[in-house]
Write a structure and sequence with these properties.
The complex is a heterodimer of chains A (327) and B (73). Chain A has 327 residues and is α+β, with helices and mostly antiparallel strands. Helices cover 34% and strands 17% of the residues of chain A. Chain A has eleven helices and nine strands. In chain A, the strands form two sheets. In chain A, strands 3, 4, 5, 6, 7, 8 and 9 form a seven-stranded mixed beta sheet that branches. Chain A starts with 11 loop residues before the first helix and ends with a strand. In chain A, 48% of the residues are buried. Chain B contains three helices and two strands; from the N terminus they run αβαβα. Chain B has one domain. Chain B has 73 residues and is mainly α. A two-stranded parallel sheet of chain B has the order 1-2. The two termini of chain B are 18 Å apart. The chains are: A alpha+beta (327), B mainly alpha (73).
């Protein structure tokens, strides 16, 4: 059952052009959110249309499941993706996700959607080669669905409540899975309290993403020193409102990951190595304290393909990374 | 392959991670059966190796290069 206003068009092209005119897209064509499709998405997730997924009090916005479903259809999702979209929307709208700030900021913060658990393989979520980029329907459309919710439901429209000076291509879509099969590292969602049999979504709002390139290190410790150097050079945003639970996401690339595996380093070992070094006092303008309240606030994720000696730093905006189960 | 076309016997060494790309290039270049020698881990795919790593790899690869050039591979 859908309750939204309905519009009728003579053709798909007419719908797409009207949606552009109304400002309901991210600048790319969308799929028509027909009542049948929206209902199928809701039914598949076992949700009623009026179920509230979250609110944005500062914008007097309430996001319902029906609104999320319509935007997921528009983004090009398949029905089976919708529970993952719902979890991402819930995570984004969590109070400590600070969505008003992270989508309105001058800095153009983006939302990384990180997927864990069995659902990755069921939906075909890419976590290996090219996983940050185009070519994977689940990655592309789940991330895009969240961004369309931000735009069409939460009013994050450039020049209006989205005040980004430049914004970023990552705001079209940014979604990838953790490569859980490449090692015995504890998956992110398990570290965050879910069971391995569950699937989960972690939404992390990032001020900027930096490639920590290192072709020459051959040990786990040396790779960690590169990470410390690049994190401290770029800085980590923080706010006392977030308390001691602030996060930083480090996506460990394949060529770096293997050094950790060879030496038997766990994610916890990396966290324990990095934490005191990140929190050490500044020594210069390019070597600043990167304040993270707890070692476990450093979120380690394995992803990416072979070849490039690089890991990625997803440096936070003023928000916590929020993990929600996919139900 | 360009060296081969210029009449200079050559052997290409690629990393295992790049084998697919190298074979594709060979195919579109009209040499689908061109044989490659492949380095593998622990040598990194990007070939930014230390002097010691280069020497270790050279010791392994040199006999294979010789065999390929003399048709004994």
């Amino acid at each position: 059952m859908t309750t939204a206003a309905q519009h009728t068009y003579d053709s798909y092209e007419d719908l797409v052009e009207d949606y552009f005119e109304r400002g309901w897209t991210d600048g790319l064509p969308v799929m028509p959110p027909t009542p049948d499709k929206v209902t199928a998405f809701l039914d598949g997730a076992g949700l009623s249309g009026d179920e509230v997924l979250g609110t944005v009090p500062t914008r007097e916005v309430t996001c319902t499941a029906e609104q999320a479903a319509a935007n997921a259809v528009m983004a090009g999702c398949l029905p089976e993706y919708f529970p993952t979209v719902v979890a991402a929307v819930r995570a984004h709208l969590h109070p400590k996700g600070n969505c008003h700030s992270t989508t309105g900021t001058l800095s153009g913060a983006a939302q990384a959607v990180i997927i864990n658990g069995p659902v990755r393989n069921e939906l075909g979520v890419a976590s290996g080669a090219g996983c940050f980029g185009p070519g994977f329907r689940a990655n592309a459309t789940i991330g895009r669905a969240l961004r369309l919710v931000i735009r069409n439901v939460c009013r994050g429209i450039p020049g209006f409540l989205d005040r980004a000076s430049f914004s970023t291509p990552a705001r079209y879509t940014f979604c990838f899975g953790e490569n859980e099969e490449v090692s015995d590292w504890e998956p992110l969602h398990v570290q965050r309290g879910l069971s391995p049999e569950q699937s989960g979504v972690t939404v992390h709002s990032l001020m900027k993403m930096v490639e920590a390139t290192d072709f020459t290190s051959r040990t786990a410790e040396a790779v960690c020193e590169t990470l410390v150097r690049d994190i401290r050079a770029n800085g980590v945003a923080g706010d006392s409102w977030l308390g001691e639970d602030g996060n930083l996401v480090i996506v460990i690339g394949h060529e770096h990951h293997r050094f950790f595996l060879e030496e038997g380093w766990s994610k916890a070992d990396i966290q324990q190595y990095l934490w005191p070094r990140l929190n050490a006092p500044a020594t210069s303008a390019t070597d600043r304290m990167a304040r993270i309240g707890k070692p476990e606030g450093i979120l380690i994720v394995a992803a990416g393909g072979a070849g490039m000696g690089a890991s990625w730093l997803l440096l936070p905006h003023l928000a916590l990374a929020i993990t929600e189960p996919i139900l | 392959m360009e060296l081969e076309w210029a009449g200079v016997p050559s052997v290409a060494i690629v990393h295992e991670e790049m084998r697919g790309s190298a074979q594709a290039i060979a195919r579109v270049s009209g040499c689908p059966d061109y044989e490659f020698l492949a380095a593998n881990y622990p040598w990194t795919p990007t070939a930014i190796w230390s002097k010691e790593e280069c020497l270790e790899l050279a010791e392994i690869m040199a006999p294979k290069v010789l065999a390929a050039l003399t048709g004994q591979s």
